[in-house]
């Protein structure tokens, strides 16, 4: 289950007040969020994504005193993640197609997008776990049907059916029919 904005914020504030357990829980909860963020934006090897996740976690830890508890946590987190990604591109001197630049560096509406991601996570948490995981893997994290099936230990047709049923259930909930 993915943590909500409120839960992440609570763990961050707890960590700022000296609760080591809350801080450790926060860092653990950030791993899948950051992996998904970088997987969608960095088309390098998986170890590069993991390196970026680790660099970001270190930055969250070392710069935690700069977090303003009155502001949304996800906005602060993903600003750090964006800067780490830019540093990564600079180190590699990677060319980035100009049409992709807006997606990578977009700042306008970033807070709204972060809150929307949390809303999607909350909606997915209302589904059976298999359906939610299939949707997260294929629609949010960008895995292929085969990759999602392999990581879940189920068949490809099972992933397809789970995605279809999950999206149908979410559509009904959003329309107020369920």
UniProtKB/TrEMBL annotation:
Transcription regulation in keyword set: yes
Any one GO biological process: DNA-templated transcription initiation
RNA polymerase sigma-70 region domain ranges (all copies): 28-93
Domain (RNA polymerase sigma factor 70 region 4 type): residue spans on this chain: 118-170
Keywords per UniProt: DNA-binding, Sigma factor, Transcription, Transcription regulation
InterPro entries: RNA_pol_sigma-70-like, RNA_pol_sigma-70_dom, RNA_pol_sigma70_r2, RNA_pol_sigma70_r4_t2, RNA_pol_sigma_r2, RNA_pol_sigma_r3/r4-like, WH-like_DNA-bd_sf
A molecular-function term among this protein's GO annotations: DNA binding
Pfam families in UniProt: Sigma70_r2 (PF04542), Sigma70_r4_2 (PF08281)
Superkingdom classification of source: Bacteria
Gene3D superfamilies (UniProt xref): 1.10.1740.10, Winged helix-like DNA-binding domain superfamily/Winged helix DNA-binding domain
Family that this chain belongs to: Belongs to the sigma-70 factor family. ECF subfamily.
PANTHER family the UniProt entry points to: ECF RNA POLYMERASE SIGMA FACTOR SIGD (PTHR43133:SF58), RNA POLYMERASE ECF-TYPE SIGMA FACTO (PTHR43133)
Protein name stated in the entry: RNA polymerase subunit sigma-70
């Amino acid at each position: 289950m993915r943590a909500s904005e409120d839960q992440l914020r609570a763990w961050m504030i707890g960590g700022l007040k000296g609760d080591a357990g809350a801080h450790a829980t926060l860092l653990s909860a950030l791993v899948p969020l950051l992996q998904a963020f970088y997987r969608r934006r960095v088309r390098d090897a998986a170890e590069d994504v993991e390196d970026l996740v680790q660099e970001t976690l270190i930055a969250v830890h070392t710069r935690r005193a700069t977090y303003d508890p009155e502001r949304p946590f996800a906005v602060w987190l993903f600003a750090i993640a964006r800067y780490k990604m830019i540093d990564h591109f600079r180190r590699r001197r990677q060319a980035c197609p100009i049409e992709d630049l807006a997606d990578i560096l977009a700042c306008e509406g970033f807070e709204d997008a972060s809150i929307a991601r949390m809303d999607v996570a909350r909606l997915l948490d209302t589904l059976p776990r298999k359906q939610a995981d299939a949707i997260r893997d294929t629609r949010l994290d960008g895995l292929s049907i085969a990759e999602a099936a392999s990581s879940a230990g189920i068949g490809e047709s099972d992933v397809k059916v789970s995605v279809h049923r999950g999206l149908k259930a979410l559509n009904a909930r959003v329309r107020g029919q369920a």
